[in-house]
């Protein structure tokens, strides 16, 4: 019995460890895109504050055969749709950088093939909120649920603990946005 409990707790801790590694890799891929595109460099400080804790986790799609190539995205409850769309554009740029065509043959660059991340608007991630982000980085309904009337300079949980800053407009270079728009607004990335 004790052996079974130990092996289950070991599995849970290993699973949590690999989740943190995946989040750090996702954060670093997106950060690399920001660093590569000069028009995105002004967002680096906010993105670094968002950190790996602000990234969406994912889980294997149980309907896929092994090895699974599709992963269902699990978003943090507190993160806004605006940030989600902006991050998906970063994912698109990364994916584009990994693709190549040789004649009629489609290939990915060296390394493991990119994950197909399916967005089902699943906000079940238990990720803890990140403090001190621009207010538009947070889901407005989530903030209101945490502290009704918070935007009127209340002195409750949101204003004293989460401490959102003034909102920051998230823009993306127009030439990249045009080609990425249909892809980034789809359910896949």
Automatic annotation (TrEMBL):
This is Uncharacterized protein. It comes from Lentinula guzmanii.
């Amino acid at each position: 019995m004790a052996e079974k409990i130990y092996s289950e707790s070991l599995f849970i801790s290993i699973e949590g460890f690999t989740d943190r590694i995946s989040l750090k890799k996702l954060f670093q891929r997106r950060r690399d895109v920001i660093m590569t595109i000069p028009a995105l460099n002004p967002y680096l400080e906010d993105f670094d504050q968002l950190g790996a804790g602000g990234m969406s986790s994912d889980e294997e799609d149980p309907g896929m055969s092994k090895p699974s190539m599709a992963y269902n995205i699990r978003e943090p409850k507190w993160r806004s749709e605006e940030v989600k769309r902006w991050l998906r554009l970063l994912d698109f740029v990364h994916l584009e950088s990994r693709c190549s065509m040789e004649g009629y043959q489609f290939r990915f660059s060296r390394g493991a093939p990119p994950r197909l991340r399916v967005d089902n608007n699943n906000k079940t991630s238990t990720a803890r909120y990140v403090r001190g982000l621009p207010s538009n980085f947070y889901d407005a309904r989530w903030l209101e649920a945490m502290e009704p009337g918070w935007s009127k300079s209340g002195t409750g949980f949101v204003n004293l603990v989460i401490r959102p800053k003034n909102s920051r407009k998230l823009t993306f270079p127009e030439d990249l946005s045009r080609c990425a728009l249909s892809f980034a607004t789809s359910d896949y990335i």
